[in-house]
């Protein structure tokens, strides 16, 4: 089957590469010439484990190609995916759909045979209706159907998530479109991934509901962690104790510095806007957004408290800057708020990250960057573990303690048991645990 993927961002590039790996003939289209040129030379625009190899082998196999020519990409494609960005619109938090509608118009103009036009970008309820309206306006003659097929992959585990999804949600009520989508995902349902057919609006909302629920779960355990600290309980054990209940489930119950990334912050806000427009407020999600925003700032204050309440003149080394491990993505990373709070308090901040330094540099003024965690910690008054990268899981804690000015370590991801920190000679602080 021939597939066109419009937009080679995170979702588009991973989905395109994985579809080609399943044997489909995939053309990835993007307006950004330098990105397409780089991809043709095998250079990935993002850091995602395994993606470069997957792309290279499918390009070599002749199943995957890249172009800036949308018309050529769409020519003969039976499934045309829209995977362009939907950033938060400046000022009002609504999803900015101008790229989606722009792509829809160009696709409509370029359409050849019958095709499913599939939105994979996260789009608010009703976007498919608007894409359908554009299609009818531009090409009233076309045999094409607009489908919603949201993507649930996580950055850092994108290929695995795409190839072994818990479910695939397809929003269409048209049988011809459903048949195309069954063919697109045939290799996956051989892997027993349930293909869930819904109405288009239901599929669009399902994506937002999933992200809002996960953001809620994280925020819930983060607030329980705060309570644990005050009443002398251990959030790690509370998390395990509740997570073993199948109705709750153990995943996404890891307390930390607050969720970040390109999806949860943006999607929760966009969902709130949809709810507001529908005059059906989602009060739980409203609280989640507010609590998480406040939490990121509070993490900076937590470090200042560990320093005795005064950060003036202190040197603080942040280890792990990206919003989570295995990505170079800095969007809405908690480290950004922490740096701000520390600098506002008069501290000198240092940063280390295995992959994210280039992305972090323009976002973090007056931060000194180091290419290894030990150099960053040397002479520092406090070390803060912000992201649970594997390289930060097996630090030589004794070495860190010996070279620091003051041996204070704030572990915002609960990587180390408090007794290990103590044994290494560190004064340790963590999340939701008695000291
Ligand atoms: C998230 C969803 O998990 C994906 O299912 C979804 O497809 C994606 O958004 C999207 O909408 O495109 P992602 O943003 O890549 O994926 O990252 P997550 O692994 O979900 O992490 C999000 C944030 O939550 C990170 O800051 C992470 O550190 C935090 N988190 C996650 C916690 O603090 N605790 C946890 O237990 C889990």
TrEMBL record:
Its EC number is 1.1.1.22. InterPro entries: 6-PGluconate_DH-like_C_sf, NAD(P)-bd_dom_sf, UDP-Glc/GDP-Man, UDP-Glc/GDP-Man_DH_C, UDP-Glc/GDP-Man_DH_C_sf, UDP-Glc/GDP-Man_DH_dimer, UDP-Glc/GDP-Man_DH_N, UDPglc_DH_bac. The active site is at residue 263. GO terms for molecular function: NAD binding; UDP-glucose 6-dehydrogenase activity. PROSITE patterns: PROKAR_LIPOPROTEIN. NAD(+) binds at residues 30, 35, 86, 122, 155, 266, 331. One of its GO terms (biological process) is polysaccharide biosynthetic process. Residues 317-418 form the UDP-glucose/GDP-mannose dehydrogenase C-terminal domain. Keywords: NAD, Oxidoreductase. Pathway: Nucleotide-sugar biosynthesis; UDP-alpha-D-glucuronate biosynthesis; UDP-alpha-D-glucuronate from UDP-alpha-D-glucose: step 1/1. Substrate binds at residues 152-155, 207, 252-256, 260, 324. It comes from the Bacteria. It catalyses: UDP-alpha-D-glucose + 2 NAD(+) + H2O = UDP-alpha-D-glucuronate + 2 NADH + 3 H(+). Belongs to the UDP-glucose/GDP-mannose dehydrogenase family. This is UDP-glucose 6-dehydrogenase.
């Amino acid at each position: 089957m021939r597939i066109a993927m419009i937009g080679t961002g995170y979702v588009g590039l991973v989905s395109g590469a994985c579809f080609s790996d399943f044997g489909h003939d995939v053309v990835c289209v993007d307006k950004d010439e330098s990105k397409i040129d780089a991809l043709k030379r095998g250079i990935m625009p993002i850091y995602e484990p395994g993606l470069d190899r997957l792309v290279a082998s499918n390009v070599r196999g002749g199943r995957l190609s890249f172009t800036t020519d949308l018309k050529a990409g769409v020519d003969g494609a039976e499934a045309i995916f829209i995977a362009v960005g939907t950033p938060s619109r400046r000022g009002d938090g609504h999803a900015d759909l101008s790229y989606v509608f722009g792509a829809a118009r160009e696709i409509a103009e370029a359409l050849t045979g019958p095709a499913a036009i599939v939105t994979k970008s996260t789009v608010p309820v009703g976007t498919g209706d608007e894409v359908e309206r554009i299609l009818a306006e531009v090409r009233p003659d076309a045999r094409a159907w607009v489908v919603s097929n949201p993507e649930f992959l996580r950055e850092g585990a994108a290929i695995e998530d795409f190839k072994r999804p818990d479910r695939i949600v397809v929003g269409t009520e048209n049988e011809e479109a459903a048949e195309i989508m069954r063919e697109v995902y045939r290799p996956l349902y051989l892997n027993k991934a349930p293909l869930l057919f819904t109405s288009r609006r239901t599929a669009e909302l399902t994506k937002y509901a999933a992200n809002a629920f996960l953001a809620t779960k994280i925020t819930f355990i983060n607030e329980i962690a705060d309570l644990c600290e005050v009443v002398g309980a251990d959030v790690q054990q509370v998390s395990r104790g509740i997570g073993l209940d199948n109705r709750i489930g153990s995943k996404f119950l890891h307390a930390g510095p607050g969720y970040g990334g390109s999806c949860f912050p943006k999607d929760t806000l966009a969902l709130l806007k949809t709810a507001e427009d529908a005059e059906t407020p989602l009060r739980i999600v409203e609280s989640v957004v507010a609590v998480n925003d406040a939490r990121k700032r509070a993490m900076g204050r937590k470090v200042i408290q560990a320093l005795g309440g005064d950060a003036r003149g202190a040197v603080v080394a942040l280890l792990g800057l990206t919003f989570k491990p295995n990505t170079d993505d800095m969007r809405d990373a908690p480290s950004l708020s922490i740096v701000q709070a520390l600098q506002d308090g008069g501290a000198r901040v240092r940063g280390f990250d295995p992959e994210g330094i280039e992305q972090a540099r323009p976002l973090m003024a007056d931060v000194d960057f180091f290419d290894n965690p030990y150099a960053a910690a040397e002479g520092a008054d406090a070390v803060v573990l912000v992201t649970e990268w594997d390289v930060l899981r097996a630090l030589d804690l004794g070495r860190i303690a010996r070279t620091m000015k003051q041996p204070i370590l704030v572990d915002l991801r609960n990587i180390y048991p408090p007794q290990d920190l103590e044994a290494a000679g560190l004064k340790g602080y963590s999340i939701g645990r008695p000291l």
